[in-house]
Design brief:
By secondary structure, the chain is mostly beta strands. The chain is built from 1 helix and 8 strands, in the order ββββββαββ. The strands form 2 sheets. Strands 1-6-7-8-2-3 form a 6-stranded mixed β-sheet, with no helix packed on it. A two-stranded antiparallel sheet has the order 4-5.
């Protein structure tokens, strides 16, 4: 089973550009807590430092299930059941249409 813990449908394509699956959002979104602090400005542009905290809404591992999460969540938590969308796939006009597989 594949559980999508992002807020968007994941349109998955194989390496030959064939559409193989749509993974709808599960309704639960795993997120990394962030805090932004103003550190100054440069040429009138505000500058912020972001610090990262705990991950929220991440279910416990479940045998036979993989979870699709954002790259930030996957980087924050080392688990074999966490995957992120693979390389972005674009149409002829350059618009994103999906990803090539899932990546770890």
């Amino acid at each position: 089973m594949i559980v999508n813990l992002t807020p968007h449908t994941i349109n998955v394509f194989d390496g030959d550009g064939r559409h193989v699956a749509d993974v709808p959002p599960s309704g639960t979104v795993a997120r990394v807590n962030t805090q932004r602090t103003v550190t100054g400005a440069h040429d009138g542009v505000p500058l912020y430092r972001t610090t990262y905290g705990a991950v929220q809404e991440l279910p416990s591992p479940t045998p036979g299930t993989i979870f699709v999460v954002s790259g930030m969540v996957r980087a924050a938590v080392a688990r074999d059941d966490l995957w992120q969308p693979g390389d972005l796939l674009r149409d002829d006009a350059g618009r994103p249409i999906g990803c090539v597989g899932l990546s770890q």
